[in-house]
Design brief:
14 helices, alpha+beta, six-stranded mixed β-sheet
């Protein structure tokens, strides 16, 4: 049985009401005693719950957090599905409270507001576009390796096709990696070729095949040989071609997952396809275990890993990529805050000539890691990308206090050349999502343009905010 969760909406399970069906005593006690909450460990080793469970004597409350995905509550019985949605009311409250000078430190709305519960305030996030944009930049794509966690060893969960957030995510990730590989050029290596040669010998003779194919059939002018060739038709490229076939079949038969992104995906596929036309078909899946990764072709390692995930999803059967039946999925979680960070990072790089000396991602100091540090003389600033902004004023204050604290770190001031000069304060900027569609104009994330667009937070000194559409 599925339990759907959205941002900031508590889902209450009790003995009296649950979707108009009371929970029986056994199920309630089972939930109370063995309800699972999986932890998600980020790159810095911090562990966060993928969702929250509060247990009480007469009820159990579930609440979504910073991840989207599907996981078991009770194995084989109940599972939780956190959908890719944000609440418009939350964002509107952040806008209002961050513009308030007097009340910004006061806790309000201790109980969920009625507006939070309205279905019209729940807006689907175009996370596919966020991933497409982020991975379109080769610098940002290198940071996308651990955006998804898949629990292959756990029991699979049967879900409807429309609830599948994992496969579209993997498909887009694979296509973007393949685009980078094609742009650099397919990897060449030595690979073995078996061929029945006429009137010549090359490499070594395969005796058993020679007897079967030629001696027993009186073909005395032919020799069955195995020899090495240096070229692109190797196992790795054959594997990528096979996954590419799965991916294109899936996209053409499940277009509802890619609404608004279909044109970009078609262009990606058309760009990739010619490079694999001369690549042969893969024979056997065991070659996966023998791939050796070349440091010069770093994209291959991640592409082969993601490709392996995709083939597992379809049981290595391409016809399953065209089906619209309920599917089996392993538990999985997608790290949305990190994806939002990378989405913002890509926009900054794109509009500022990929100047990584000026735009530093995840600048680390004393166990802290700033999302983005802008090193630009007197125009330097610290940028914090906040994917989900709570509607309570105290947490608005906490977000602002966090980014302001980064500005007082000695290592940050030294990096910006301010440590020994004077006591100037560094500008702080919070970039947060908006759930109204606004087209992102060219150069809108140029550093000079950002300074023109960002809005001053009235209750704080040299602290600003800027919204970005994720629709």
């Amino acid at each position: 049985m599925k339990i759907s969760l959205y941002e900031h909406i508590n889902h209450v399970l009790d003995k009296q009401t649950y979707d108009e069906n009371p929970l029986d005593q056994f199920t309630f006690e089972k939930l109370a005693s063995s309800c699972l909450v999986r932890g998600y460990k980020d790159r810095r080793g911090n562990k966060y719950n993928c969702f929250h469970v509060s247990k009480h004597a007469d009820r159990i409350e579930l609440k979504a957090d910073y991840y989207i995905g599907i996981d078991w509550l009770i194995k084989g019985h109940k599972y939780v599905h956190v959908q890719p949605k944000l609440n418009k009311y939350v964002v509107e409250q952040f806008k209002a409270k961050s513009d308030t000078e007097e009340d910004v430190l006061i806790d309000v709305d201790p109980e969920p507001h009625e507006e939070l519960k309205k279905e019209e305030n729940q807006v689907h996030i175009n996370y596919i576009k966020m991933l497409l944009d982020a991975m379109s930049d080769p610098i940002v794509a290198k940071e996308c390796a651990d955006l998804v966690r898949i629990e292959w060893e756990d029991d699979t969960i049967k879900i409807e096709q429309q609830d599948d957030s994992l496969t579209p995510f993997l498909v887009v990730q694979f296509l973007q990696l393949l685009r980078q590989i094609v742009r650099k050029g397919l990897k060449k290596s030595y690979y073995k070729v078996r061929e029945n040669l006429n009137n010549r010998i090359k490499g070594k003779i395969l005796v058993s095949q020679q007897i079967k194919q030629n001696v027993l059939k009186n073909r005395f002018t032919k020799t069955y040989c195995e020899y090495q060739v240096f070229g692109e038709d190797n196992d790795e490229n054959q594997f990528l071609k096979k996954v590419f076939r799965f991916v294109t079949a899936y996209i053409s038969n499940h277009q509802r997952f890619f609404v608004g992104n279909q044109k970009i995906l078609d262009e990606l596929a058309n760009y990739i396809r010619p490079s694999f036309e001369h690549i042969g078909d893969l024979e056997g899946e065991e070659v996966l275990r023998h791939f050796k990764h070349n440091p010069f072709f770093k994209e291959y390692k991640e592409a082969i890993k993601i490709g392996g995930y995709i083939l597992k999803r379809f049981g290595y059967n391409v016809s399953r990529a065209t089906e619209n039946q309920p599917i089996e999925t392993p538990p999985f979680w997608i790290d949305m805050p990190r994806l939002f960070e990378l989405y913002v990072y890509q926009k900054l790089l794109q509009d500022n000539e990929h100047d990584t000396s000026k735009i530093k991602y995840q600048f680390s100091t004393y166990g802290n890691a700033l999302d983005i540090l802008i090193k630009d003389g007197e125009q330097s600033m610290i940028i914090d990308a906040k994917y989900k902004l709570q509607y309570e004023s105290s947490l608005v204050h906490q977000d602002i206090r966090q980014v302001a604290g980064y500005a007082r770190l000695n290592k940050v001031r030294t990096e910006l050349g301010m440590f020994d000069l004077d006591d100037r304060n560094i500008d702080c900027l919070i970039i947060y999502p908006t759930l109204t569609y606004t087209s992102i104009l060219p150069d809108s994330f140029k550093l000079s343009s950002i300074r023109q667009q960002m809005k001053y937070l009235k209750g704080y000194y040299k602290t600003y905010k800027l919204e970005i559409s994720i629709l």
